Amino acid sequence: MRTSKFALSIACAAMVASCGGSTTPTPTPSGTGGGNTGGGGTDPCSLTARQDFARDLLNEWYLFPDDLDLTVNQNSFNNVQDYLDALVAPARAANKDRFFTYVTSIQEETDFANSGATAGFGFRLAYDTPNRRVFVIETFEGTAALGANIDRGSELLGIGTNSSNIETVNSLMANGGPAAVSNALGPSTAGTTRVLNIRDQAGVTREVSISKTDYSLDPVSNRYGAQIINDGGRLVGYLNLRTFSVLSADDDLIAAFDDFRAAGVTELIIDMRYNGGGRISVAETFGDLLARGFDGQVYNTIAFRASKSENNSTYRFNVRPQSIAPTKIAFIGTRSTASASELVINGIQPYVADIALIGTNTFGKPVGQSAFDLADCDDRFRPLTIQLENADGNGEYFNGLAATVPNSCRANDDISFQMGDPNEAMTATALDFLAGRACTAIAGGPSTTASALEEGVLAPELPERNAAQHEVPGLF
User: Fold this and answer.
1) Distance CA 281, CA 340 (A)
2) CATH of 226-368+386-447, one of 3.90.226.10, 3.10.20.310, 3.40.640.10, 3.90.1150.10
């Protein structure tokens, strides 16, 4: 899809919220009085005006107009996000919009898209409710967390604002569930300081005082994100993409595939186990790099509601010098794998027969958002507006992709090893598939859980997330 009319993205939500977009001009919803004014009242940024804008926007553009409840009383809600949730409640009940429609900050989203800029400790967290535990599943480069040697596999045992008031994660989970842990970690602003009790991989427990800082998230880690694994003499390209929402992801993908092509790699492990989605344009670059021999063939189609069908589009592969002709692809996924990640898997499936989903079922989000700005209020509204399908017409995978891919292998997320390490369970299972070794299939149907850790990545409540937390599941 190529359009300059307005920004499109696809993303996941609920526990694994993520999205993307750009600051290109957006269409003006009818009846709002303009993109920067909202409706009702003299203050264009009053709660009433912003709610009016949201209602009119959904009434005109929402993908599932028959699944809107426009009768809800906006005076019953004290913020815009809760009102949006109420408007789309029928679609949520029908499993079509699982908190995918939201409002965020224009400035925060633009900063994150342009450079990965955000503020936080710099790690990604997942929780295990039955055992009341929280673990670090990934740490980003150039962050306070990595500087404090908090990396994948570390366990978060306690949180406080100082050493004397640390509350155990066990207690937080018991009294308030994952939300209590999220709240204890504090706001996503530079300078927020917490004292953490950490248990490292080696079993050593220590206390760390750590402050949130500004940093830029790299879409492909320079520690493990792109590498060539020698598996018994077979060269396998491994690529871990963290997010589709940072513009430099295009450059990272191209650089990785340039190396793969130079080495003669045709077998790939594409690891998107925590990737909740983002920019369609980045997903299209990804598809192009997998499509040598398929130039001009249909990758995906994008459809709006019937009244907006003039915006429908089809994207065809545009093969690049770095593109390869893959013979086998093992996609690593979990229920945190959604949207643009699923688009890539679904889009290449008609062309590469020997592919597999490794891990667990994906989230199931064949739909996406457009960006509509209320600029004077720093509001970017992202309602569901589009549905996607591949060249074979597959676009109804609301229960995940496990039932649609030709092969699958069940595997746990093994945080005792870094992602991309051949000893890590999902990576090892992907290598087994590529080598023709047997595995146990993932069951189809709604997203399944292979381990307690995959119960969910930790996330603030939807109204409290910053733009980067929408884009990167589990980010703090």
Assistant:
1) 9
2) 3.90.226.10
